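User: I'm curious whether this sequence folds into something compact or stays loose and floppy. Could you predict its structure so I can see for myself?
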Amino acid sequence: MLASLGRDDRYLRLWSVADGAELAGPQRKHNGQTRGVVFGPSGTRIVTCGLDKKIIMWSIDPI
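Assistant: Here's the prediction. I'll summarize afterward.
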């Protein structure tokens, strides 16, 4: 299981819920705060939205 966080610093991070290990990050693509993070049903994509009015699709490696 994965957890992700987008913060005021505009970076996206990805962790393993099982052991708390940071798997990816920090990644920065938004020019403002990241306001929403959603995992795709396959577990290989994350979609974020930010105050910069962008929606960004991220590819992640399956675990």
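Summary: The longest strand covers residues 22-28. The chain is about 0% helix and 55% strand.
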